[in-house]
Design brief:
Strand order of the largest sheet: 4-3-5-12-6
Number of domains: 6
CATH topology of the largest domain: Rossmann fold
Number of helices: 24
CATH class of the largest domain: Alpha Beta
Largest sheet: 5 strands, mixed
CATH architecture of the largest domain: 3-Layer(aba) Sandwich
Helix content: 25-40%
Radius of gyration: 33 Å
Structural class: alpha/beta
Strand content: 15-25%
Shape: flat
């Protein structure tokens, strides 16, 4: 065997050395690039990084170089790539190097591409004539623009400006600017930086004001499609696409490995049938694309999804294809992986918890049971085909699970009966398996279709699985042995409250229905106050959400936990959240949590007069604690960490249930505003703390009781005792 670094016997088309095994190794790659100073600098910056490839480069003109008259806003898509594309087709070169934003759209079918990882600033900048300031601009400046995007921005930033096309290489444009042809140019920051002309930049335009094309600042490499050598080289510049099963029904069924990939994604194409709260774990910079398809609504076409996967992968982005359940169960996984296979792009597949498992193992309808069933059949009806093709191949002694069969249940059951399967055979439909909306309808082959039709359970938003066979009779008696068995508790609070509330619900057999009615917006102005944290002797922070935003503000202010003074809290939930960051509060009530308890504790401790205290919380936080501390002689500074905003939803969207857990007065006001009091009066209203209870009463409603502690677990445990007492009496 000849090693990779060993001289070879023969050079191929690429000048690659041939090993005895047939694998090729580089002796030289022939690159092509445009014959401009910027393009040459860009090409050299790539070549020096391709260690061991001994590349060579040849320079070409392009139509855009030869034609200096055509307005770039009206130029053909391949204005700057055509000659290099043709050089590839003539096999004069092996690969071409471009500015990524110059690649034509649509891209030629016979070529392939990749963005290279060495990027420069993607934004745009304002460039003025030498020795000129923005204040020197005339009332109607002549501005040179080369795209409709820049033109639109200039019309808003410089009303009345005269917008003119600008052509030529970067140096030529600057010369035109300095000679008086323009008063101002809008240019790409990357070009000036690469040309060592960043000193000409007068102002960087924020991306929030002027979004740049995806490829601006990036370099791209193109080559003939199917070139195995270049495909192999490209794998060094891309991340594997990750196909991941998000689990079914609820976020808790998502595996730890998939959660980790969610936290790293640069773009996420997600399906309809997954718990969308998982999308909260995506990075803030991640691009989210709804690629969901349902039986009756195919949303984005499969070809469009395939194209997006391949394009984002070739851009060097971490691509996550997040599928509901397990991606290998009727998830069109093969169509998508075959697209990547054809392009020699890498990918990984992470299995997930399927709705089949939740509909069977999760409900007690076990598809395998000792002495009863040693196997099962799973299928999905094919649209437009006769169901008899399915019924004939199913052994009569095996249980059957049917995906996406609700709308054809009657047809399927009739066909099973015609194929000598008894009409009395048990059958069940499991809708929304594993979710808070899970429903189980049990009958027989003869009765199940009518039961489904009578309940309007075939609605597209309720995915279902049919179970046919005596296994459909199975259930867990233990599911009924809970004090809150089957009771639906609507959880309206913040994310920091939801985890403990959900656990408390499941511990008592209740079904947690997560439906936040308020949202939170970080207040960046808090960083100015947090930067002075060392001036304070005590921090008062009174909600789990405030702890989360305090940590955000602390980090953005350039501080860490060592800067935190003594901390006072008024509730167990807040203390638990702090403990997650390794912080134990210095002052907290032993029980009877709430603002009143903390105030009593301050009075008992007799805090020093003049002590500097920082009170950090929401814009909706009451003033009781601050007022009490001022009366004790403390020097109080109040800082808003975040703003509480009501979520907009209709009364019809509010979920059905038996009880609503309210974690704050703001949540009560938001729910009343959107649903009205008549609907809320149909639920048991469970408040956390006296202020929340007062908010409920202020709307003419009655809390079922006020829990002894303003703590989600305590509230739900006491609600379980209340329900048990009522059922006994």
């Amino acid at each position: 065997m000849v090693s990779a670094g060993t001289a070879a016997k023969k050079s191929g088309t690429h000048g690659f050395q041939q090993q005895e095994s047939g694998m090729t190794f580089p002796a030289g790659i022939r690159f092509g690039a445009r014959d401009s100073r910027l393009s040459k600098i860009q090409a050299e910056s790539v070549l020096v990084r391709l260690k061991g490839y001994t590349p060579v480069v040849r320079y070409y003109d392009s139509p855009g170089d030869r034609d200096q008259i055509t307005d770039l806003r009206e130029s053909p898509a391949d204005f700057f790539t055509r000659d290099l594309d043709n050089a590839l087709r003539r096999k004069e070169i092996d690969a071409a190097l471009h500015s990524a934003k110059d690649l034509p759209d649509p891209f030629p079918e016979d070529l392939d591409w990749v963005w290279l990882p060495w990027r420069e600033d993607p934004g745009d900048v304002i460039v003025l004539p030498q020795n000129r300031q923005m204040s020197d601009l005339p009332c109607r400046p002549r501005i040179g623009v080369s795209s409709i995007r820049r033109e639109t921005w200039c019309q808003a930033r410089f009303p009345g400006a005269i917008l003119c096309p600008v052509r030529g290489v970067i140096e030529s444009r600057l010369s035109q600017l300095d000679s008086g042809s323009y008063d101002l140019l809008i240019m790409a920051a990357a070009a000036l930086i690469r040309l060592s002309l960043s000193g000409r930049i007068s102002e960087f335009i924020p991306l929030q004001e002027l979004a740049s094309p995806d490829g601006q600042g990036a370099l791209a490499m193109t080559y003939l499609k199917g070139d195995l050598v270049m495909n192999r080289l490209r794998t060094n510049f891309v991340y594997p696409v990750v196909f991941a099963g998000a689990g079914s029904g609820r976020a808790g069924t998502c595996t730890l490995e998939v959660r980790e990939e969610i936290s790293r994604a640069g773009v996420c194409l997600y399906d309809a049938l997954l718990d969308h709260s998982l999308l909260d774990f995506l990075p803030d910079t991640c691009r989210k694309i709804n690629a969901g398809k349902r039986c009756s609504d195919h949303g984005k076409g499969q070809d469009a999804i395939n194209r997006l996967l391949a394009d984002y992968a070739r851009q060097g982005v971490r691509v996550l294809r997040l599928k509901g359940g397990d991606p290998g169960f009727f998830g069109r996984l093969t169509e998508e992986t075959e697209t990547l296979d054809a392009l020699h792009l890498p990918y990984r597949v992470l299995p997930g918890v399927s709705s089949l498992q939740l509909a069977t193992t999760g409900t007690g309808m076990l598809l395998t049971r000792r002495g009863q069933s040693r196997g099962f059949t799973v299928f999905t009806p094919v649209r437009g085909k006769n169901t008899r093709d399915h019924a004939r191949v199913i052994p009569g002694h095996l249980p059957v699970a049917v995906f996406m069969g609700l709308t054809r249940c009657s047809e399927l059951c009739s066909e099973f009966i015609r194929n000598n399967i008894s009409a009395a055979t048990p059958a069940a439909a499991v809708l929304g398996a594993g979710s808070a909306d899970e429903k189980i309808i049990r009958g027989t082959l003869a009765t199940l279709p009518g039961m489904i039709a009578a309940g309007d359970h075939s609605a597209p938003e309720l995915p279902g699985i049919l179970i046919i066979g005596r296994e459909a009779l199975g259930s867990y008696c233990g599911r009924k042995a809970y004090p809150l068995a089957g009771i639906r508790i609507v959880l309206t609070g913040s994310n920091s409250l939801l985890s403990r509330a959900c656990h408390a619900c499941t511990d008592r057999g209740a079904i947690p229905v997560v439906f936040p009615v308020i949202s939170f917006v970080y207040e960046p102005e808090c960083e100015k106050t947090l930067a002075r944290l060392g001036e304070f002797s005590m921090l008062v922070i009174t909600s789990p959400t405030a702890v989360s935003f305090f940590r955000t503000g602390l980090t953005r202010a350039g501080l860490d936990l060592r800067s935190v003074p003594k901390i006072a809290v008024c509730g167990r939930e807040t203390a638990n959240t702090l403990s997650g960051y390794g912080i134990v509060p210095d002052l907290a009530p032993d029980r009877y949590f709430g603002a009143d308890s903390l105030i009593r504790l301050f009075n008992k401790k007799k805090i020093s007069k003049g002590i500097k205290v920082l009170r950090a919380g929401s814009d909706q936080a009451g003033s009781a604690i601050s007022d009490a501390l001022r009366k004790l002689g403390a020097d109080i500074t109040d800082v808003v960490l975040y703003h509480t905003r009501p979520r907009s939803f209709s009364s019809e969207e509010f979920p059905a249930g038996n009880c609503i857990l309210f974690g704050s007065a703001s949540a009560v006001h938001s729910a009343v505003s959107s649903t009205g009091t008549d609907k809320l009066a149909q639920y048991d209203l469970l408040p956390l703390g006296e202020p929340t209870a007062r908010a409920i009463k202020a709307h003419g409603l009655n809390p079922i009781f006020v829990p002894s502690e303003a703590d989600a677990a305590t509230a739900i445990n006491e609600y379980a005792l209340y329900i048990t007492a009522n059922s006994i009496n």
